[in-house]
Design goal:
Number of domains: 2
Helix content: over 70%
Mean pLDDT: 84
Largest sheet: none
Number of strands: 0
Shape: elongated
Distance between the termini: 95 Å
Radius of gyration: 26 Å
Number of helices: 8
Strand content: under 5%
Length: 193
């Protein structure tokens, strides 16, 4: 049996949430080694069966999007708001897809998570969407892509983003009194004294 033994098995660390994901990923890597150990060692009695390995794969893929999000947010010393929208939208999309999961436990866990997630999403998705549109690397198409996936077709939420962007543009493109004009007129009045 040829396995990359440099990877090593990870242990669960109570104070680090990502240790569960890392532990499951390393266990999946060594799945064949566990099966081999079960065949050669009569004292080894805790080898996961096929259903348990399926559950390990499901939970690992479920936790994977959260792990990637944390890596994206903490991978830089100064994460900016434009980084958040694509990652958070992907998490929301994954949660919505897992709501229809056949596994009752996973569906229950997802429904509890999504109710908390939607509270924050409803408050901040507009701001995050506008920030990502203002980033030169992205544009409104990215917002439309995720909103179409999350809400299906044309949504009120997407229309709200476009209306807010239009109002923002109109506000900044409207002629305003220049601050230099105000300063100049104030200086002129000082000279008249």
């Amino acid at each position: 049996m040829s396995l990359d033994s440099n990877k090593g098995l990870r242990q669960y660390v109570l104070t680090r949430w990502n240790s569960t994901y890392l532990m499951l990923e390393s266990a999946i890597h060594y799945k064949r080694a566990f099966a081999y150990l079960e065949m050669i060692d009569k004292n080894y009695m805790f080898c996961p069966n096929a259903l348990e390995w399926e559950n390990v794969n499901d939970i690992s893929s479920f936790l994977g999007c959260f792990y990637c999000a944390i890596c994206a947010f903490s991978g830089t010393k100064y994460p900016t708001a434009n980084v958040y929208f694509p990652v958070v939208a992907l998490i929301y999309l994954n949660l919505k897809q897992d709501l229809v999961n056949e596994d009752g436990y996973k569906r229950l866990m997802t429904s509890q998570m999504i109710s908390k997630f939607e509270k924050y999403w409803s408050e901040f998705s507009l701001v995050l969407a506008i920030v990502v549109v203002l980033d030169p690397r992205y544009n409104l198409d990215l917002v439309k892509y995720y909103y179409t996936k999350i809400y299906r077709a044309e949504s009120q939420e997407y229309e709200n983003v476009t209306k807010t962007l239009t109002k923002l543009f109109m506000e900044y493109s409207a002629p305003t009194t220049s601050s230099s004009t105000i300063v100049q007129s104030q200086e002129d009045s000082d000279w008249e004294m």
